[in-house]
């Protein structure tokens, strides 16, 4: 029995479990991807701060045996900025929902990317505001029914990876909870990167997005729906703009080096 236990579970905060995620939610998978990445990189959580704002995704750091901040919706990157300026050697990892990062925290997001703040953001995009009951988010696909768009959303969604890349992020990739191997590899790359690194993971929310937008509360239905819409970068190149807008384009979009933000006037080039 003991041999089959995931060794990465040693990074779980003693007494932290059971978790609060709904059955079938992807946040537990993302927690597991992160644990695997940390374990494979042989990182210690002792020199790491993990931050969550408010939301289902924001609960992920609560289960980690690292120093953790949990509590203000959309302000994770403001905290991260303060921590990095005080202690540049600290590894800072933010777990954010799509609402947290791209709606209330959207302004912090673009400026963290522009400055190339040396933090990793793992963004769980479940396509809605889940914790508050399934409202429309800036990432909700066009025409989706949610609790606040009963006739379908008329707003085009953000492509968060393109937004991050345009703002200046230096590592950007997107995967889904269906693509565990690639997601773990991307988190490893992000954790090893110096500068603003973003890994977006499209994830299933059976409780809200599944029920309201797709008419099914089954995680498997939602995972299949996500998979049917997923295309690689190479496949996306053959699609028209209109077709691409309805797909989740997966891959590593940006990997580059540039000076990181290290204070109001000082930019650090390398170490
Ligand atoms: C300042 C502030 N505004 C609004 C809220 C209410 N609120 C709590 S969680 C949440 C949505 C969370 O959605 P998202 O960030 O996408 O995370 P998810 O729950 O979907 O993982 C909102 C609007 C709040 N807690 N604080």
Helices and strands in order, then pairings?
Blueprint (H helix, E strand, L loop, with lengths): L26 H14 L7 E5 L14 E4 L5 H11 L4 E7 H7 L1 H10 L4 E6 L34 H8 L3 E6 L3 H13 L4 E6 L3 H9 L4 H10 L1 E3 H5 L3 H5 L2 E8 L4 E2 L5 E2 L3
Helix pairs in contact: 1-6, 3-4, 4-5
This protein binds thiamine diphosphate.
Strand order of the largest sheet: 2-1-3-4-6-5-8-7
Ions, cofactors and other ligands present here are: thiamine diphosphate
CATH topology category name? Rossmann fold
* Count of helical stretches: 10
Instruction: Identify low-pLDDT runs.
Output: none
CATH class: Alpha Beta
Mean pLDDT: 94
What does the radius of gyration come to?
18 Å
Question: What's the total number of strands?
Answer: 10
- Can you tell me the number of structural domains? 1
Shape: globular
Distance between termini?
A: 44 Å
Q: What is the CATH superfamily?
A: Thiamin diphosphate (ThDP)-binding fold, Pyr/PP domains
The fraction of residues in strands falls at 15-25%
How would you describe what is shown here?
The protein is α/β, with parallel strands linked by helices and 271 residues long. The protein has a single domain, classed as Rossmann fold. Helices cover 34% and strands 18% of the residues. It is built from 10 helices and 10 strands. The protein has helices at 27-40, 76-86, 98-104, 106-115, 160-167, 180-192, 206-214, 219-228, 233-237, 241-245, and strands at residues 48-52, 67-70, 91-97, 120-125, 171-176, 197-202, 230-232, 248-255, 260-261, 267-268. The strands form 2 sheets. The chain has an 8-stranded mixed β-sheet with strand order 2-1-3-4-6-5-8-7, sandwiched between helices. Helix 4 packs across helix 5 (160-167). It is globular, with a radius of gyration of 18 Å. The site of thiamine diphosphate has 17 residues, from helix 3.
